[in-house]
Queue: 4 jobs
Job 1
Amino acid sequence: MLMWHYRSKHEDLIRFQNHFIYDSKLIIPPSTMGGDSEEFGVSNHYLGDSIYKNGGTNDDEADHIIKLLLRHVANYPKKSIGIAVVNTHQRDLINDKIRVALDSNPTLGDFLDFWQNHDEGLNKFFVKNLENVQGDERDVIIVGTVYGQKKPATRVQQSFGPINFPNGHRRLNV
């Protein structure tokens, strides 16, 4: 069994796996990047009223991801970013919303062009579904889970597509 983890620059980046996969037995060196800071670690954006549509999309989540992307572009233009979502339908929806945002936000276009060419494109912006994001590293990764309630004020259905299948938990370790 893996005993310690050294690659993460902040403990929050491995905390989930440490707890749920390694039974909190990993030894994780303390971060040298500072304590609790919005710039480091993991933050959760709970969208309690988001609606999951049959077919695998969530407009509320996609809109929120676009807001996070635009905030990143404005505040951290020299930090790379990528977006990983659970399925291809949500990936396509987010790509459509990015195309719309490009029409009204030239700074977004400049940002995407910069990262397309910087470091020979090694850290270019991406939107990928979970199966295609393995091994990609960026300064910031936005992860979209897509799932939500199907009608307002109802419970989230406990059906998470391939994640519910045998060995589906492996997809969460990406």
Job 2
Amino acid sequence: AVNTGEEQKKMTKFKHDVLIRLVRLIDAVLITVPFAICWFGYYAERIDNPFYSKGNFLVVGLYFILYIIFGRLYDGFAMSTYRVSEIAYGQFLAAGISDVILYIVIMLLTKHLPNVIPGLEALGGQLVLAIIWALAAQLWYFRTFPPQTTAIIYDQRRGMTKLIDEYGMNKKYDVQFTAQVEECLEDLSVLKSVETVFLSGIHSHDRNIILKYCISNGINVLVIPRIGDVIMSGAHSIHMFHLPMLRVSRYM
């Protein structure tokens, strides 16, 4: 029964990941369409030596890849954790930077300063498509995937439930119970009934015990870092004595 439950969890996660990637791919295609129209309809004919079809598709493909890279960087695909306005803004930044890079490429190909108006019109179309995708993707996500059963474990910081409600994240996280860290450590099995655990303001020793238990039981963990965690996040990974080490130093 345990193995069957674990396999079902893996299949559910696999289905979730595949569908999310497919929806993100649709977004990347949608944002690339205005650039492709702009390229084929205006810029492609104005370079000194026009490309054949393969060259034109290569330019469009380059834009597609750049947009995916910058979309990830600015969290433009985070349909389940950000507001529609934040998603659209992230995608606008990603599309704008990609447009600027391709504009520089076009300038090198045409050997003069090309007209920027078609590019700005394409950027406007991309913003409209980003807003439409963000609205549709959020609506689809929360209808397709039920909220995850959630527990909040705290030590010094309370109020996580209020934050979840304020940011509209109750659509994704269904808080079943909250508990003080000592109560949780007395009986870790209470966490088996949830899919996600928030850890807020917990000391590293107690936190590591809960982390190990959650990871071994396939439970997602979201941790609010302490000061030491923030410092360690800037550590440089090095190898010494044939061991992986983290080098932490003050910023120059």
Job 3
Amino acid sequence: MNKKIGIIIYARSSSERFPNKIFKNILNLRMIEIVIKRVKKISLKKKDYEIIVNTSIDKSDEKIVNFCKKNNIKFYRGSLSNVFRRTHDCLKTHKYEIFARVNCDRPFVDFEMISKMLNLIKKDRKIDIISNCNGTYPKGLACEIARSKIFFENIGKIYTKNNKEHIFNFFYKNSKRFKILDISDPLYKKNNNLNLSVDYKKDLKKVLKIFKFFKNNYLISTKKVLTNIEKIKLG
């Protein structure tokens, strides 16, 4: 394989609840940097995949583009509101056969889980989507892996605002037409009420507490975080 897998990190600056949150500092690193560094821990051969930041053509996202250029990170720009189209065009342009969706407001992105899911979809060509979004996972750890062909084949069926914004909704709503493999994890299920995403400014304090518990190791495995979360006084 010649980099047929894209690890797509979705990033935008125009969050209504917490604008520019992906550039907020955690451990002297911006959140987007932590997410990228964690994703680089995915256990696949480097020649098989590449990391790409997926952002919009809106002026508000110029800062993201400048960051990527400065740090030699591949990026793709498309529609701000039609994320499905932006994903479709990114997949077409870079000829990815498989991709993983990663959101940039998730500083505990589970690189071990993503590695497991990618290896599963590589082994079974009949699988269209592998997802852990089955209602038994902590917020901030959701991930989907998909074959690009289902985006190519269904781009003309994406009409609603909801389906344009939430790129897997169409497939879940029409699940009988696709082979979707749900992944569950006991640790995820045990901690499914936990929120590990950054939605508001106050969430940064929680993230910092967790990393400090692990001696500022921003590459700590998500499994270790969940195993020890009860020992951390999150308040």
Job 4
Amino acid sequence: KELQFVKASKLSLQPCAVIGRSPTGLTDSIALNCGVEAGAQVGRAVVSKGFLVGKITYAAQGFSTAQLITSANFFVDARISQSGRLAIVRGSFNSGLVLEQVAQDEPLEPGMLVVTAGVSEKVPKNLLIGEVGEILSEANELFKKASLVSPIDFTALEFVFLVK
């Protein structure tokens, strides 16, 4: 699957092996064998199978660390692909993803795709993040909120790509 993604992608990608996981045992971060010499920079996107899985938080010679998208401290600008409306995706206690800041008048249904908005130059526009799962907000709230479903098993990542 990774090779098919690389062949189809127009992005400049650097393959990296996962060489370590968060010492807490939670799926919070991963260590990669790609360092600054391979193009690792703080804030750069990390993808697997075409889906955003995290961002580089530390880069040194020979290795880097990436915070996973499921981390409670993670957030990224996003866009609902069907409408183009902006939103924010946040990690949810190391277990999932939440789509936030969606206007109440914005149509939001399970199965809609969510992609990166491209506000940051280090996280390119239109990287897949996931699809809308369950709507978590009520009609009387200021913004809509929904769970996002990613096909990535974050506990089993072995290879990823650094987006250069």
